[in-house]
Amino acid sequence: MKREEPLFDVGQLAHLEIYSPKIEESVAFFKEILGMTEVERKGKSVYMRAYEDHYHNTLVITDHHEAGLAHIGLRATSPNALERRVKELEEAGYGIGWIEGDVGHGPAYQFNSPDGHVMEVFWEVEYYEAPEEEKTHLLNRPQRRPNTGVPVRRLDHVNLLASNVRKNVEFLDDYLGFNVRERILNDENDDIAAWTSVTNLAHDIAIMGDALGEKGRLHHICYWYGYPQHLTDVADLLIERGFQIEAGPLKHGVSQASCLYVFEPGGNRVELFGDAGYLIFDPDWRTVEWKGEDVQTAIIWQGEELPADFFVYGTPVREKVEIAEQAPIQEETEEVRVQSVKEAKQEAETKA
Amino acid sequence: MKREEPLFDVGQLAHLEIYSPKIEESVAFFKEILGMTEVERKGKSVYMRAYEDHYHNTLVITDHHEAGLAHIGLRATSPNALERRVKELEEAGYGIGWIEGDVGHGPAYQFNSPDGHVMEVFWEVEYYEAPEEEKTHLLNRPQRRPNTGVPVRRLDHVNLLASNVRKNVEFLDDYLGFNVRERILNDENDDIAAWTSVTNLAHDIAIMGDALGEKGRLHHICYWYGYPQHLTDVADLLIERGFQIEAGPLKHGVSQASCLYVFEPGGNRVELFGDAGYLIFDPDWRTVEWKGEDVQTAIIWQGEELPADFFVYGTPVREKVEIAEQAPIQEETEEVRVQSVKEAKQEAETKA
Amino acid sequence: MKREEPLFDVGQLAHLEIYSPKIEESVAFFKEILGMTEVERKGKSVYMRAYEDHYHNTLVITDHHEAGLAHIGLRATSPNALERRVKELEEAGYGIGWIEGDVGHGPAYQFNSPDGHVMEVFWEVEYYEAPEEEKTHLLNRPQRRPNTGVPVRRLDHVNLLASNVRKNVEFLDDYLGFNVRERILNDENDDIAAWTSVTNLAHDIAIMGDALGEKGRLHHICYWYGYPQHLTDVADLLIERGFQIEAGPLKHGVSQASCLYVFEPGGNRVELFGDAGYLIFDPDWRTVEWKGEDVQTAIIWQGEELPADFFVYGTPVREKVEIAEQAPIQEETEEVRVQSVKEAKQEAETKA
Amino acid sequence: MKREEPLFDVGQLAHLEIYSPKIEESVAFFKEILGMTEVERKGKSVYMRAYEDHYHNTLVITDHHEAGLAHIGLRATSPNALERRVKELEEAGYGIGWIEGDVGHGPAYQFNSPDGHVMEVFWEVEYYEAPEEEKTHLLNRPQRRPNTGVPVRRLDHVNLLASNVRKNVEFLDDYLGFNVRERILNDENDDIAAWTSVTNLAHDIAIMGDALGEKGRLHHICYWYGYPQHLTDVADLLIERGFQIEAGPLKHGVSQASCLYVFEPGGNRVELFGDAGYLIFDPDWRTVEWKGEDVQTAIIWQGEELPADFFVYGTPVREKVEIAEQAPIQEETEEVRVQSVKEAKQEAETKA
C-alpha cells in the first residue's frame, strides 16, 4: 500500500513463542550453546532472554507435540498507536481478541496473518532487572555477558513460510506498517520471498513461499551476535557437540548478513547473525528487487550454496497432506524431517 | 519534552558539510585512506560519498579559511513531515529560510540550533547512480567496494560542541524528534554530554559541552565500517602515512562502539566506527544516565583513556576570545591546535 | 624415514615461480587485488612481494604459453646445511645442477622431485630495502602496508599435484627434512594427500594426488592474511570485479585454516589464508591421519563443500594424454579448464 | 654467540609452573574465564591445559606463600639433543640436576638461568588423551572447544624480569639456541628488553630489565587466542567480573601482537594474545633493534600507552630489600602490589 506518510505505529519485533516437542533439550541448547538465560517458567512455557535484550524475555519455548511458531509479539510505539492498530485489524476481520498479558508484557491484542500465523501487539512491557550478581557497570547493557557458550546478544528477526507471500507481505505493510526492504521475484513478478521491517534493520519479519503449500509454518528465528568471529566460535561448539549446522557461516546477498543456520533440538531452524549487515535509514526506501540470474546473488554473496532442504523444511514438519493424514507426525522430529524433505523434493521434481 | 506519541518527522542524518583550510589534502585523505569517492565539484565544494551511502553524497568539503562544520542535512520522513517541521521551526524563531537545493537534494529549509549550528531539513533526494564499471551485482549496495585504502561504508553520526548541552538537546528533541539515548550528567544533574537519535542507532547527533564556552563548534564527524578489524587496518595506514590518531582503537561504554579518532588534514576530528555497537528498538527507551564514578565507564569500556585534548579541541579552532581577536586563526591548524589546547587546559586548571 | 634426530637443514619455503599465459593480467591481479608490489622485471619474469615478506621477492611470474609451476625456492639454514643437502640430492640422482642465482638470491642448487617438480635450495638472499616513502617505523615490517586492494602479508605455502603422493612426500622427508604433519589416507592406507613442513606451520608444501595421473602439476600457491575478516573483504573485491572464487571463505579441518580459493587470470589457483590455523611446536609430532568418514572433516570443518573441480583442476591444464596430443593446449585457459574438468570428471565417473 | 650453524636442540617452551598464594582462586580464573581444563592435582599443584595444547598440561599452579615463577619447562628436539644440552649446561656450572619427571613428562634436567630462574629440559612427554565426551572429530585438536569463558587455545610464551638482560639473553642463546628476534636498546646499546625464540614465533621467552634490580622474577605468562575478537570478548568477562585489566586490548610494535594484560587472582600478570603477530622463517634473522624515539613504537603500535606499573611490577612482589626484611610480603598481594609499585616509582624518580 502506498501511504501518504509512513506508518510508525509498530516499533519492533519484541518476542517470539516457539513450540518444542523436546522442551528441556531445546532450553538446554539456548542456554548452553547460545548463552541465553532462563528467566521464568510458567505452565508449559519457559521464558528466555539474550543478555542484551532489554525486556524481561524475548523467547518463549512452549512444550508441544510438534515444533513450530506459537506467536509473534510486536510492540506498538505508543498506547495510541496500539489503539489504532487494534481498530484497523478488528475492522478488517483479522482479530482474535485481547489477552490480559503474559510474563513480561501487559494486555495484548492477538490477530492472525492471512496465513494464520498468530501475532499480537501490545504496549506495556516489563524491563529486565538483573539480579545483583548479574548486573554490569556498562549501563546500556541490561545484564552482564554470560560465561557460557558463545552468547547471542539480542533477538533479531523471524522468517515465516507462507502459502502466498505477496498476500502476507501486503498485510504486514498495510495493517502494521512493515516496509518491504528486499524481495525475490519470479518471472511473473510474484514474490518468492520478501524481507520487511519497521526498524532500520533489513528485516524484522521475512516471508518465504512454503514449498509444500502449507499455511502458518515457521522457517526460522534469528538471534544476533554482531561479530562474524562468533559464528566461527559457535560453529565449533555446535559441530563438536553433534548439533546439525544446516549451512554457514556464509554471507547472504539479501541483508548482507553473515550467518549460520542450525536446528535446535526441538526441530526449529535457528539462524545466528554475525554482523549488522547493512542498515536502512532512507524513509522512502526503494525495495531492492532480485530477479532471474540475480537471485543466486540474493541468496549467497559469499560462501556455500544452501542445501535443497533450506527451501522446503519448516516447522511444524509437514508431509503432503494425504500422507500426514495416514501417518501423524512422530516424536522423532529428525527422522521425519529427513523423510519429509526427501518426499517434498521428489514431489517438487515430479512437478518440475 | 514528553510527547503523547513519539515524533517521526525526521528520518535520518543525511549529509554533513565541513570546512577545510586545506581542501585538496582533506579530499585526498577521505579518498586515499577512507576509500571515499569524489562525486562532484561545484563552487568551493567537493561532494563525496562512501560506497554504501545511497544518496548522491553524504560529505561536502568546502574550502574555507578555517576548519569547522558548515551545516547538517536532515531528511524528513515525508513531504508532510517536512512541512510540519518547517512550520514549527519558523514559528519558534529558529528559521533561516529555504534554499533551492544543492547537489544531491532538493529544496531545504535551513535553521539554527540554539547554539547556532546550521541545520537543514529536506525531502527530495537524488540517489547515486554508479557508472557502469562501478556497479555491483549486490543490488542493495549502490556502488562496488573500492579498491583503495580501507573504505568506510556509510555516514554514521555527527558530534557537536555546544555552550549549553541541555538547551541544544532539548531543541533536537522538541523540534525534530531526536530521542535522548544516553547522557552524562554532572553532580548537579546537568548534561555534560548527550547522545540523540531518530533512528535505531545510539546516536545520529551527539552534543558535548564546549570546554572553551564557544558556540557552534564541531567535535567530530563519524563514518562506519561495521567490522572491528577495519580499525586495525586503517590504523596501519594512518600511522605509516603520518596521520595523527588521537585515540583508539578503543571501545566506548556509551553506544558500545569500537572506534578510532583521527584528524583529517584540514583539522577536523574524524571518528571511525568499527562495529554496530548496540541498537535501540524500544519505542519508549529510558535514557541511560551516567554519573559520578560511572562516567569513566561511559567514556572507555575497553582500551585507553582519552587524551585531555579530546575534551577541549574542536573546530573551528578557538583560543580564548580575547586572544582570538588579537591573533586571527593562522593557516597552520596543527600548531594552533596544540597551542590552543595547551592554553585551554591551563585555563581549565586555573579555574579548577 | 625415521631419523635418529630431526633434520634441520632446510629452513623455509622462500619463493615460488609460476607461469602465466597472461602475464600482465596476472601481475595486475596480484598488485590491485592482493596489494603486492612489483619489485623488478627481468627477461620474461616479473618479481613480486607481499609487504611483510622480508626477502626481495617471493613470487616470480614468468611469461609462458601455459600456466603452471616453474620452480620452488627453499632456503637452507646455513651454508653447511646447503652443502649437505646438495651432496645427498646429487648422490641420489635428483640433481639438475647449480645456477648462479636469480634476482633476490645467490647460487642455488636445482633438483627434481620424483614427479619432476623443479625445486632449488640456496643460502644467500637479498633483503628487501624499501624506498624511503615506503618505509615504516614498525621496524619488524620491511615495507609499509599498501593502500591498494586487500594486501596479503606474506607467502604461506605451495600445494602440488603428484602422480604418486607417497613417493613425493617421502622424498621431501628423506632428502629435505619436511615433516608430515597431516595426511589423508585411502582404505589401503595409501596417501591421497599430505601436508608437510620444516617450520611450525601445518604445511609449507602439501601434495595431493593428481586425478589425471599427470606429473609435476601445481594445485595452488597460498599467501597469508592472518585475519579472517580479510577473506570477506577480498571476496567483495574479487566478486565485484568478476574474478572466479572457486570456494570459500571456509574453514578446513586440515591445518584449521580459514581460507578462500580463486583463479588468477593466468589460470593458476591461488589460496588466501585468513588466520594462523594451528601451529606445531612438538618436535616429535605424530602425523594426524584422516581416513574413512573423517575425510570430510579433514576437507571442510566449517562452510561449504569443495566443488568437484577442486580435486581435478591443476596447472598446466591437462586433458588426457591422447586428447592432448591431438589438440594442443589453447591459449584460452579458462575454456580449456572448463572442458578439461568436464572430461576428467567423465573419465573418473567411467572408471568408478 | 655467533655459531657456524644454528642450534636446534631445544624445540619449544613446553610448560610453566607458577606459584599462587590463592590457589583455588587462581585455578578458578583459568578455568572459568580462560576456559582451561584442570587435568590433575598432586601435592600442592594443580595441572592445567588449554584445549589445543597437545601435551598433558602446560600450566602448573602451585600453592605458595607468594606469587611468582616456579620453573620453565623446555622440550628438547631429540634424546641426543637433550644429552648435548645437559652436558653443556653441566660443564658450565648452571646445572641443578635431574628429576625423575613430573605429571605429564619424563626425566628432566633442571638448571638455573644466570639470574636464577629455574628451567628444565626433557624429552619424554605424555600426550593428552581426552575423555570420550571431550573428544572431537577435528583430529588435529586434542580436545573439543570448551563451553566456558572465552577459551584460550595454547600456551604461547613467558616473559621474565632479570637483573641483567644481556647476560640472561646470551645464556639463552649460547646454551639453548634461542635466537634474539627483537631487542630494545638504551643509549649505551645495552639491552632494556629482548625477545627470543627457538620457534617461528617472535618469542618463546622474553626478558625485560627488572626495575627493582631483583633476580628471578616473572613479568608475565601468555596464552594464545589467535583471533583479535576474543580479546574484546574476554575483556567483557574480566571487566564485568571485577578482574583488573592492566592494559589492552592494544597492539605492540614488538611481535605485532594484539594483546591484553590482566592479573590472575594470585597476583601473576597474564597476557592474552589475540592474533599470530608475525612469524619468522628466516634462518638468519637479523635482530630487530629499537632505540631512541623508536622505542615507543616498539611498545605500542596501536592503542593505549602502558601504565607505569607495567615496567615495575613483577612476581614475587618485591619491595626494596630493606623494607622487605622488616615487613615480609603479606597475603594481600594486591595491596602490596600497589604499595610496592608506588615506592618503586618513587625510587626510580629519586634516582633519575
UniProtKB/TrEMBL annotation, chains A, B, C, D:
One family name in Pfam for this protein: Glyoxalase
Uppermost EC category: oxidoreductase
Domain VOC intervals: 12-124, 154-275
MF annotations from Gene Ontology: catechol 2,3-dioxygenase activity
EC number: 1.13.11.2
Residue ranges crossing the lipid bilayer per the database entry: none
InterPro entries: Catechol_2-3_dOase, Fosfomycin_Res_Enzymes, Glyas_Bleomycin-R_OHBP_Dase, Glyas_Fos-R_dOase_dom, VOC_core
Keyword terms, alphabetized: Oxidoreductase, Repeat
Name of the molecule in the record: Catechol 2,3-dioxygenase
